[in-house]
């Protein structure tokens, strides 16, 4: 949620659009890269249901994942295709070119899922995951997440349904 004065923007895509109206650099400057990034963000925002369900987001654990469904395999294949397309078309190291943009922010949670569950990717996808996880803002996000001691019981149940936790780096109470 973003509170901007009297205005509350509660949706992640709405926040990106709101910020883009006020700040340059949220989207790539290049018109082709910007159009691609907007499409990729919309796809992430409304898709990848199996990824979300079978590989729940958790920064601080490593999981021996249950076998993926056919739909999850399709989601991972689509991510691989999408990331390779952006990286090759716009030259990387970010998904839409030389600068971090909204599209990278939208896929950052996926990078954590890749690491958490040991998802295998092609070289381009694995390289982008390393790049995004090394970004200072993402590292700060990770540090804050690891320091948090509160656990959402429902999320812990969802996590257990995804596989067995093999390592837990989160702070304990």
Structural description of this entry:
The protein is mainly alpha-helical. Helix content is 60%, strand content 10%. The protein contains eight helices and four strands, in the order E-E-H-H-H-E-H-H-H-H-H-E. The strands form two sheets. The chain has a two-stranded antiparallel ribbon. A hairpin with a 2-residue loop joins strand 1 and strand 2. It is globular, with a radius of gyration of 17 Å. It starts with a strand and ends in a 5-residue tail after the last strand.
Query: What would you call the structural class?
Result: mainly alpha
Order the strands across the largest sheet as they lie in space: 1-2
Low-confidence region ranges: none
Order of helices and strands: EEHHHEHHHHHE
Shape: globular
Compute the number of helices: 8
Q: Whole-number average pLDDT?
A: 97
What's the end-to-end separation, in Å? 27 Å
Rg computed from alpha carbons, rounded to a whole number of angstroms: 17 Å
User: What percentage of amino acids are in beta strands?
Assistant: 5-15%
Count the E strands.
Answer: 4
Question: What level of helicity do the residues show?
Answer: 55-70%
What kind of sheet is the major sheet?
2 strands, antiparallel
Spell out the blueprint of helices and strands.
Elements: E1 2-4, E2 7-9, H1 12-22, H2 31-46, H3 49-54, E3 61-65, H4 70-90, H5 102-117, H6 123-134, H7 136-147, H8 153-162, E4 163-168
Antiparallel strand pairs: 1-2, 3-4
């Amino acid at each position: 949620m973003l509170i901007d004065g009297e205005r509350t923007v509660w949706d992640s895509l709405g926040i990106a659009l709101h910020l883009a109206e006020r700040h340059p650099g949220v989207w790539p400057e290049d018109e082709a890269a910007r159009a691609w990034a907007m499409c990729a963000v919309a796809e992430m925002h409304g898709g990848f249901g199996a990824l979300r369900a079978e590989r729940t987001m958790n920064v601080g654990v490593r999981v021996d994942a249950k076998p993926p469904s056919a739909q999850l395999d399709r989601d991972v294949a689509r991510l691989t295709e999408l990331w390779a397309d952006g990286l090759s078309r716009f030259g990387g190291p970010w998904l839409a070119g030389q600068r971090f943009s909204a599209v990278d922010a939208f896929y950052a949670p996926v990078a954590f899922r890749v690491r958490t569950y040991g998802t295998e990717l092609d070289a381009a996808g694995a390289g982008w995951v390393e790049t995004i996880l090394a970004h200072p803002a993402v590292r700060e996000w990770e540090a804050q997440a690891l320091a948090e001691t509160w656990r959402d019981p429902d999320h812990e149940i969802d996590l257990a349904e995804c596989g067995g936790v093999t390592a837990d780096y989160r702070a304990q109470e």
